[in-house]
Amino acid sequence: MNKQGNGKNKLEMFSEFNVNNFKRWIKDQEEDGDDTQELLGMKVESKINFKKLISRIKILDPEEGEEELLAKEFRQEGGTISDIDGNNFLIEVSSGSFTIHKMYVKKS
Fold first, then answer.
1. Within 10 Å of residue 52's Cβ, how many Cβ atoms?
2. Which end of the chain has less neighbouring CB within 10 Å, N or C?
Protein backbone atom coordinates (compact mmCIF):
# COMPACT_ATOMS: atom_id res chain seq x y z
CA MET A 1 0.00 0.00 0.00
CA ASN A 2 1.28 3.48 -0.77
CA LYS A 3 1.46 6.58 1.42
CA GLN A 4 -1.97 7.75 0.22
CA GLY A 5 -3.59 4.70 1.77
CA ASN A 6 -5.79 3.77 -1.18
CA GLY A 7 -3.69 0.91 -2.51
CA LYS A 8 -2.77 2.61 -5.81
CA ASN A 9 0.60 3.95 -6.79
CA LYS A 10 1.01 7.25 -8.65
CA LEU A 11 1.30 5.59 -12.04
CA GLU A 12 -1.99 3.73 -11.59
CA MET A 13 -3.72 6.92 -10.48
CA PHE A 14 -2.35 8.84 -13.47
CA SER A 15 -3.41 6.14 -15.91
CA GLU A 16 -7.02 6.54 -14.71
CA PHE A 17 -6.99 10.18 -15.80
CA ASN A 18 -8.84 10.53 -19.07
CA VAL A 19 -9.10 13.78 -21.04
CA ASN A 20 -12.50 12.83 -22.41
CA ASN A 21 -13.84 12.19 -18.90
CA PHE A 22 -12.44 15.54 -17.80
CA LYS A 23 -14.11 17.34 -20.73
CA ARG A 24 -17.39 15.59 -19.92
CA TRP A 25 -17.06 16.68 -16.28
CA ILE A 26 -16.44 20.32 -17.35
CA LYS A 27 -19.52 20.21 -19.60
CA ASP A 28 -21.63 18.83 -16.73
CA GLN A 29 -20.42 21.66 -14.50
CA GLU A 30 -21.47 24.24 -17.10
CA GLU A 31 -24.90 22.60 -17.44
CA ASP A 32 -25.35 22.74 -13.66
CA GLY A 33 -24.76 26.48 -13.88
CA ASP A 34 -27.54 26.74 -16.46
CA ASP A 35 -29.94 25.14 -13.98
CA THR A 36 -29.34 27.94 -11.50
CA GLN A 37 -30.19 30.54 -14.15
CA GLU A 38 -33.55 28.84 -14.66
CA LEU A 39 -34.33 29.32 -10.97
CA LEU A 40 -33.96 33.10 -11.12
CA GLY A 41 -37.38 34.73 -11.15
CA MET A 42 -39.10 31.55 -9.97
CA LYS A 43 -42.00 31.96 -7.54
CA VAL A 44 -41.36 29.99 -4.34
CA GLU A 45 -42.93 29.46 -0.94
CA SER A 46 -41.81 28.25 2.47
CA LYS A 47 -41.55 24.56 3.36
CA ILE A 48 -41.26 25.31 7.07
CA ASN A 49 -43.53 26.79 9.70
CA PHE A 50 -43.54 30.48 10.63
CA LYS A 51 -41.49 30.14 13.83
CA LYS A 52 -38.73 28.15 12.15
CA LEU A 53 -38.80 30.47 9.12
CA ILE A 54 -38.07 33.49 11.32
CA SER A 55 -34.96 31.76 12.69
CA ARG A 56 -33.73 30.67 9.24
CA ILE A 57 -33.96 33.88 7.22
CA LYS A 58 -31.09 36.33 7.15
CA ILE A 59 -31.59 39.97 6.31
CA LEU A 60 -28.64 41.50 4.48
CA ASP A 61 -29.76 45.11 4.81
CA PRO A 62 -31.37 46.12 8.13
CA GLU A 63 -33.48 48.67 6.26
CA GLU A 64 -35.18 45.83 4.35
CA GLY A 65 -37.54 45.21 7.26
CA GLU A 66 -37.91 42.93 10.24
CA GLU A 67 -37.65 39.15 10.11
CA GLU A 68 -41.20 38.69 11.38
CA LEU A 69 -42.75 40.95 8.73
CA LEU A 70 -40.76 39.37 5.89
CA ALA A 71 -41.45 35.85 7.14
CA LYS A 72 -45.19 36.54 7.50
CA GLU A 73 -45.41 37.92 3.99
CA PHE A 74 -43.36 35.04 2.56
CA ARG A 75 -45.57 32.45 4.32
CA GLN A 76 -48.78 34.09 3.09
CA GLU A 77 -47.86 35.18 -0.44
CA GLY A 78 -44.58 33.49 -1.33
CA GLY A 79 -41.66 35.27 -2.94
CA THR A 80 -39.39 35.34 -5.96
CA ILE A 81 -35.81 34.10 -6.25
CA SER A 82 -33.73 37.10 -7.32
CA ASP A 83 -30.22 35.72 -6.80
CA ILE A 84 -28.44 32.49 -5.91
CA ASP A 85 -25.30 32.23 -3.81
CA GLY A 86 -24.24 28.60 -3.47
CA ASN A 87 -27.02 26.90 -1.51
CA ASN A 88 -28.72 30.13 -0.51
CA PHE A 89 -31.47 31.97 -2.33
CA LEU A 90 -32.08 35.69 -2.17
CA ILE A 91 -35.86 35.93 -1.92
CA GLU A 92 -37.78 39.10 -2.71
CA VAL A 93 -41.17 39.90 -1.26
CA SER A 94 -42.99 43.21 -1.59
CA SER A 95 -41.73 44.51 1.77
CA GLY A 96 -38.05 43.59 1.25
CA SER A 97 -35.65 40.73 0.68
CA PHE A 98 -33.77 38.11 2.65
CA THR A 99 -31.59 35.05 2.15
CA ILE A 100 -32.51 31.51 3.10
CA HIS A 101 -31.06 28.07 2.43
CA LYS A 102 -32.63 26.40 -0.59
CA MET A 103 -33.78 23.40 1.45
CA TYR A 104 -36.39 25.57 3.19
CA VAL A 105 -38.24 26.66 0.04
CA LYS A 106 -40.31 24.93 -2.62
CA LYS A 107 -41.67 25.90 -5.98
CA SER A 108 -45.09 27.55 -5.81
1. 13
2. N
Q: Are residues 56 and 91 in the same domain?
A: yes
| Number of domains within the chain | 2
- Same-domain pairing of 58 and 99: yes
The predicted-structure confidence for 68-81, as pLDDT tens digits, reads as follows: 999 999 999 999 99
- The model's pLDDT over 88-98, given as tens digits with 9 standing for 90+, comes to 999 999 989 99
- Its domain, for residue 1, covers 1-39
83-88's contacts with Cβ under 8 Å and 24+ in sequence apart are 83/40, 84/36, 84/39, 84/40
Helix (H, G, I), strand (E, B) or coil at 104: helix
